[in-house]
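#structure-requests
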Amino acid sequence: MKKIRISIIGFGVIGSGVAKVISEKKGYIKSRHGIDLELVGIGERHGSIVCEDGIDPMEAYDLAKSREMYKHPCWKEEMSGIDVVREVNADIVIEATPTNINSGEPGLSHMMTAFKNKRHVVTSNKGPLVVAYKELKRTAEENDVQFRFEASVGGAMPVFNLVRESLQANKMLGIEGILNGTCNYILTRMSTEGLSYEHALSEAQELGIAETDPSYDVEGIDTACKLVILANAIFDMDATYKDVEVEGITGITPESLKLASDEGYAIKLIGEVRDGLRVAPRLVPKDHPLAVGGTLNVISLHTDLAGEITVTGKGAGAIETSSSILSDVINISKYEFEGT
């Protein structure tokens, strides 16, 4: 039985969701994979929970939900997230702080510190990968540790692990897909119900699908960031956000959607890596694998041997994202801690 010590840095929706899923799946992971996951550190900006003998993940989740983490007996107010990364003896650091696509912080510093302290990193945080992917990859390799980020694109959908493992004999020719569930929901509602953009957006905000300031989603920024990660990780590019041609969905009208529908097409916000990087609304045949509705995401991988492989699934949500995070944790545990 391999005992794997884990720290979670950032204990908001995603980080606490990971703790909840660890609690629920601990027995299954033990029996199925022979891995005993032990949570030993939880890092936040203004205090942390550290217990070398192990933290009950469900207790921590409940305290986070009630905003009372300071009530935990192992609470250390003077210890920040980066202190936990540096000082707590963890095998794997799960970095789940909020995305910052301008500086990548604080996640970037957390990850670099983890690598330099010989700790593997699993993350859902897009920011550091958009800002400094090459530097992160190089630092992980120099310190002989793994860097995995399946959850950063597509939530629960397996993309990077699919390419890394099942499609490793294939040359990737291109990628295209719907990478933002908010935009897909808005376009679906506009198309099926004839709603205006403003009406569909308001509905999405009321349901919690869209943020109060939706610009990051609807202007194509989120899709472009995910495209940069795909391009760099799968095609070994050195792309940044500035390399992406970006157009969002704010100019799409119910009339244009109806016209497209009458001709057998849907309009979808598609991100594409082929000759370049582009995000734009595009006509997609209604019977095409990319024509998914609601908040679903979809990615098509174009390969030289396997042809076109399409993966569809939920691109957001704490539980769905935790699925990808724990997949990365299990993979690292299997390949890096044999015999422990």
